[in-house]
Amino acid sequence: MNRATPRLRALAALPFVLALAAHLLVLAFLHDRLPDPLATHFDGGGRADGFTSRAAFTVISTALLLSLGAGWTLLVRRTALWGAWATAGFTGALLVLLVRDNLDAVDAAGVSSPLVNLTVAAAVAGLFAAAGWALTRLVPPEDAAPVAVDGPRLPLGASEVAGWTRATGSRPLTVLAGLALAATPAVLLLAPWPGALLGLLGLVIGVPGLALARIRVTVDRRGLTVRPALGSRPRIRVPLDEVAGADVRDVSAVADFGGWGYRVRAHRTGVVLRSGEALVVRRAGGREFAVTVPDARTGAALLNTLAERHGKV
Questions:
Q1: Residues facing 168 on adjacent strands
Q2: How far apart are CA 141 and CA 137, in angstroms?
Q3: Which site from 63, 80, 160, 168 is most exposed, i.e. has the minimal number of CB atoms within 10 Å?
Q4: Percentage of residues of the chain with pLDDT beyond 70
Q5: 88-105: per-residue pLDDT in tens?
Q6: For the segment 20-50, what is each residue's pLDDT rounded down to a tens digit?
């Protein structure tokens, strides 16, 4: 989770540029085969019950992709690049499928949209996410000169090895993420256009929220690792050679980080599931990473010991 370099920002913006270009090209080439207005909202049976003029649809869909792209480009981090690509793939696919549903319609009132469109869009999002994950290797971790490690220590003999791990979770975040995901289909199907597109936010909020609702924090020879308790991805890792020091700090979820979940601030990032005890790592590049977890002092002490030992190798 390093600073967003120009290359990383460019890679985050790229999928939205591709999605927007594909969408506008489809609209341009098929302009004469589309009704005006277009069917842009559908009831539970897939029948059209909301309509938007072609000009308004073009403006709204373009603004949606641009705003999502701007947000990801501004806030992206190296290990979350796949999320930018997945969001662009899902949104772009839904818009193109919507145009396809309207193709050659004499009357937009007769247009229908199958629910399988959501499955197709999710599949495209998966392919985009895989591409984004692969492109992460083009953004190498920051290199930094060795820095003296400070903070508490856990005494270890020269030949001793040790590891520390704790699982922790947030019931409120689990409930909120579950509600966001549960509401997504209803909003997409029932809300009038363009409000239906707000349903996409349910996926943007719900999927990462559910992944971070219960996490496992580990300190070992690889450094500090934070991942979902029930899976290996997405994963945040601070390698030992990036650790300038680790300590324990009481944090306020709202005052210090502006809320719960994965948080980004000017000079620090964090996985914040509650207020209280947090393991805070000072990175060689000057930023901080915090994760709220029980027994944080043991984790910080072991991380300092392992980082110091690693620097002498």
A1: 215
A2: 9
A3: 160
A4: 80
A5: 999 999 999 999 989 888
A6: 999 999 989 998 898 888 988 887 777 888 8
The reported pLDDT for the residue numbered 65 is: 92
Is pLDDT of 189 > 80? no
Measured CA to CA, the distance from residue 144 to residue 216 in angstroms comes to 27
